[in-house]
Write a structure and sequence with these properties.
This protein is mainly beta.
Length: 550
């Protein structure tokens, strides 16, 4: 009975070594199976970008500009098409922030400057200094005793940033009684609150009473340094309606910032998830907040939905506008153990749960994706609470902290790749400190210390290793010939294991032809392990050359 391995895949550690499908492995390291054969991963390329510290988060701004932080940061780009300011928005645990090209690109550590996200409401009501009726033709103040001409009005103001972002109004002024049409009102304006808000202007509004309602209409826009203004406009000269009543700032403790495809930005704090006004990441109405039963650990957007991984049951939020967002708890009791483990894929998200890598779709279906790949106990060896992951090429690339010497200190980093399509696993030896998955190139940029690299972008292969399943053959079976099909077999070595013990080794360089003789070996449980720096297309063991299949 020949052993003929014609296709290769990754590990499924859940299955016993002898019960694996023929193409799966018991160990796969630094290799991929995109073409159904064993192909070594390649080394990284220096991106010629250097940081002055070891970052935990990196982000490609544009061109050769990279942002880096020494802590966990969530970043989104401006949802405005062709944003003239090239703004980004981010949460870092201190308070939500934004930056732009005019302030971020000075110095070595970028971003070099930022503003607090959102526009505060004025704290002080507009003061009314004087009400002056118009003068008649003789220069005397007009006295109008007709109560039908009386008007009671109120004033308020908003602040506006240099980007044109208008915040919520401050408190309304005291009522102003206008007895003579055409009267002017002198307004007293307070300075804005201290803070890094980028406030440059203010807009003044006043009420206009109609037959059905009273609304605030814009009177004037002023430079923020102006502290007094005389309003002499008639009602029909007023312009836009105040529309920012609920354009509140996001709370300081909001984190996890992400963006939906419909222009809505999303963040969370505790068990509360928050949605911004569409295409206005600075405006977060209280009415657009929802809560979950358990505290939220991580969120990730997929199309027009957001998946929230919590300390209990995950929840899917979806909707076209922030006013009609609905929530759907997933029928899966799998907490999210690591904020940085949650990754958006095509139509679903993956994150590290207690029983394995959890999959949640935008429709609210949930499962332990790796349930048929590894047991809960096997998954625990990956230290799931420390997993951080990225999505590249449809794969889930993860790192985790490992106690290498058994002293109780998790001071070693190990890597893995989970393939949700083939539902198998591979190991990585080339680890890093931070990474950015570039959606345009589908490349992973990795930071190693203070240097940035392009992951697996060179032509230099890494040292790969792939061990087959255990093949059960009749007791005492012996194979005298082996064929390893490879475009460069001299770069491939092979180990043979019989009854779980290493029986023969042929290192790279010792195999010069695809077909070679084996020493006398016999047993009922055979395994082959190839390693080295070249692709392996097929592995065959036979009792004679004539028995080798075509």
């Amino acid at each position: 009975m020949n052993i003929d391995i014609t296709t290769m895949h990754g590990e499924i550690p859940r299955d016993a070594d002898g019960l694996l499908p023929q193409s799966n492995s018991t160990y796969a390291e630094n290799c991929h199976f995109d073409r159904g054969v064993i192909t070594p991963l390649t080394a990284d390329i220096d991106a010629s970008i250097a940081f002055t510290f070891t970052p935990l988060t990196v982000f490609h701004y544009y061109d050769d500009y990279w942002f880096a932080w020494g802590h966990d940061v969530n970043v989104i780009r401006s949802p405005i098409a062709q944003d003239p300011y090239n703004r980004i928005y981010y949460t870092d645990g201190e308070y939500p922030k934004l930056t732009s090209a005019d302030i971020a690109l000075v110095g070595d550590n970028l971003p070099s400057a930022y503003y607090r996200l959102g526009v505060p409401a004025p704290e002080t009501a507009i003061g009314i200094s004087a009400v002056n009726p118009p003068n008649d033709d003789d220069g005397n103040p007009v006295i109008d005793d007709d109560p039908a001409n009386d008007e009671t009005r109120y004033y308020c103001e908003t602040y506006v940033t240099a980007y044109g972002e208008e915040g919520p109004p401050g408190p309304a002024s005291a009522d102003v009684e206008i007895t003579a049409p055409g009267s002017s009102v002198t307004l007293s304006l307070a300075a804005p609150p201290a803070g890094n808000y980028n406030i440059t202007r203010r807009r003044i509004y006043r009420t206009v009473t109609t037959t059905s309602d009273a609304e605030f209409l814009e009177v004037v826009e002023l430079d923020i340094a102006v502290t007094s203004y005389v309003d002499s406009l008639m009602s029909d000269e007023l312009t836009a309606t105040l529309e920012t009543e609920d354009y509140l700032m996001p709370p300081d403790n909001m984190v996890g910032l992400c963006a939906m495809n419909n222009g809505i930005s999303v963040g969370f704090a505790g068990n509360e998830i928050m949605f911004s006004m569409p295409y206005l990441p600075y405006a977060w109405p209280d009415a657009y907040k929802l809560s979950t039963y358990d505290n939220i650990v991580a969120i990730a957007s997929v199309d027009t939905a957001v998946v929230a991984g919590t300390e209990g049951v995950p929840v899917v939020f979806s909707g076209i506008t922030p006013s009609n967002i609905s929530d759907k708890p997933v029928q899966l009791n799998q907490a999210c153990l690591s904020k940085r483990s949650m990754v958006s894929m095509l139509g679903f998200v993956l994150y590290a749960g207690p029983a394995g890598i959890v999959k949640v779709t935008t429709t609210g279906a949930g499962s332990v994706a790796t349930a048929n790949v590894m047991t809960r106990e096997q998954w625990q060896a990956f230290n799931p609470s420390t997993v951080r992951a990225w999505s590249v090429g449809g794969n889930y690339i993860g790192l985790y902290d490992y106690d290498g010497d058994g002293d109780g200190v998790y001071d070693t980093v190990r890597g893995f790749i989970y393939d949700p399509n083939n539902n198998d696993l591979r190991r990585l030896t080339n680890t890093f400190d931070a990474a950015y998955a570039d959606p345009q190139s589908d490349l992973l940029y990795v930071a190693k210390g203070g240097e940035l690299w392009v992951s697996q972008a060179s032509q230099t292969p890494l040292s790969m290793r792939w061990r087959s399943k255990v093949f059960h053959v009749p007791q005492g079976s012996s194979y005298s010939v082996c064929r390893v099909m490879s475009p460069s077999v001299i770069q491939v070595g092979i180990h043979f294991f019989i009854e779980g013990q290493l029986a023969c080794t042929m290192p790279p360089g010792s195999i010069v032809d695809n077909i070679f003789r084996l020493p006398v070996m016999a047993g009922s449980k055979w395994q082959a392990e190839v390693y080295g720096y070249a692709q392996v297309d097929r592995i065959t063991l036979a009792q004679s050359v004539k028995e080798l299949p075509a």
